[in-house]
Amino acid sequence: MHVRRRFALFAVTIAATPLVLVGCTADKNPAAKAGHGKHAAANPTVAVTPVDRTKDVPISAEVGAKVGGGKITAVRLTDDKGEQVPAEPREDGSSWVPTRPLKNSRTYTAEVTAAGNSGRTTTQKTTFTTAAKSTKPAITSVLYFRGDQTYGTAMPVTVAFDPPIPKAARADVQRRLFVKTDPPQPGAWSWIEDGSQVYYRAPDFWKPGTKISVRTGLEGLPIGKNAVGDVDHTATGKVGRQVSLDIDNATKQMSVYRDGKLLRRIPVSLGKPSTPSSSGKMVIMEKFDRTTFDTRGDPNGGYVVDVDDAQRLTWGGEFIHSAPWSEGEQGNTNVSHGCANVSATAANWLMGITQVGDLVTVKGTEVQLQPGNGWTAWNVTWDEFVKGSALPVPAGLQPTPSATPHPGAVAGGGSSPAPAPSASGG
To answer: CA-to-CA distance for 262 and 276, rounded, in angstroms?
Structure first.
């Protein structure tokens, strides 16, 4: 099946770049020297990055610190007007990440204080200047996760890129993507092969009631030598009730489950042999009370039709939707252009049951779902999913023979909005 990439839905733009603080260094100030004599071992050493008087620092800068003989007790970052810049530490304590991008062509001062075992402290100060606004092209990216929305338990945090991110840059991009869950439920990022999408999910489905907070701290970050990130966004949503749809081509029936209990079976008509539906695990991506399918220009299309109660499953144009014209075939014959046709009454009922992020499993059709044709994070096992990470997967999340969920803390590793998709289906 030919997949046409479409960026839109509830779009939030973002972009990408490396973690490391880089720039043209005018001078390097060594870490504060330890004390002398009998107190030498008691004074911790602190080395801060960016080093003092560094210029042309990206506005995505983090304050890094290495401490010898002690631990960090305080970090303070201020701008050239004396205003403090809020920042949060990474889980491993390697750096402090400002909660918003810095401003171009401004000077900032970072002060890091560390205490030794004896209680003696050392404070290291560094001043750096950010770069002017970049003239390099920005990579357009979309975060498919909106704040203040309730999602299904299979909702993957999805970031899409145009153009795709090359393999050499994916680790740097991934370091700047952060996810937190409450209650904690750890997960990992995984890239599809062409680098056009990256997904974040846990080994098992999200628990109902979970709050998911996402930050894409990517504005101003260089991507290789020729591109830069466009924007930086945050969003917090929550997980609703557990709903799943199972569609079996052998029986031409859809089984609708909520919290593991069967609610209803619905007759369906899937794609005819010349335009088969995809088999695999999909996620409801968006919902329309009414939309227009325009397939003119598609290899097997050429029609325009208005449809009611449509729910997108793939970028290629597969939907669940009302199809009163095929109610005589539903439950016995496949006549659609790839969509799951249901009756008008059933489609309306489904719209009140489902959520964006609910799992839809289709089995027994002539073709398999292609990676990236929709949010396909659940179409592979956890063992296969984590192979797509550009960074090492934490020990607690590495595949195990039982593949059981592992509870614990979660950490993440001037835009042109992406064009809206033209709805197609049948």
So the answer is: 27
Question: On the CB side of 368, how many CA atoms lie within 13 Å of its CA?
Answer: 4
Q: At 310, list the tokens.
A: 């449509």
Which residues fall within 8 angstroms of residue 381, CB to CB, at 6 or more apart? 403
Q: Could you confirm whether 339 is annotated as catalytic?
A: yes
Answer CATH for 41-130 from 1.10.3660.10, 2.60.40.3780, 2.30.42.10, 2.40.110.10: 2.60.40.3780
Thinking of the domain 243-368, which architecture would CATH place it in? Answer: Beta Barrel (2.40)
The domains of the chain are located at 41-130, 243-368
321 is catalytic: yes
Task: List the catalytic residue out of 24, 36, 233, 339.
Answer: 339
pLDDT in tens, the chain (426 residues): 444 444 444 433 333 333 334 344 444 444 444 444 444 456 899 999 999 999 999 999 999 999 999 999 999 999 999 999 999 999 888 899 999 999 999 999 999 999 998 889 999 999 999 999 999 999 988 999 999 999 999 999 999 999 999 999 999 999 999 999 999 999 999 999 999 999 999 999 999 999 999 999 999 999 988 999 989 889 999 999 999 999 999 999 999 999 999 999 999 999 999 999 999 999 999 999 999 998 777 776 678 899 999 999 999 999 999 999 999 999 999 999 999 999 999 999 999 999 999 999 999 999 999 999 999 999 999 999 999 999 999 888 987 654 444 333 233 442 222 333 434 566
Catalytic annotation, pick one of 233, 321, 337, 406: 321
d(CA 288, CA 242): 21
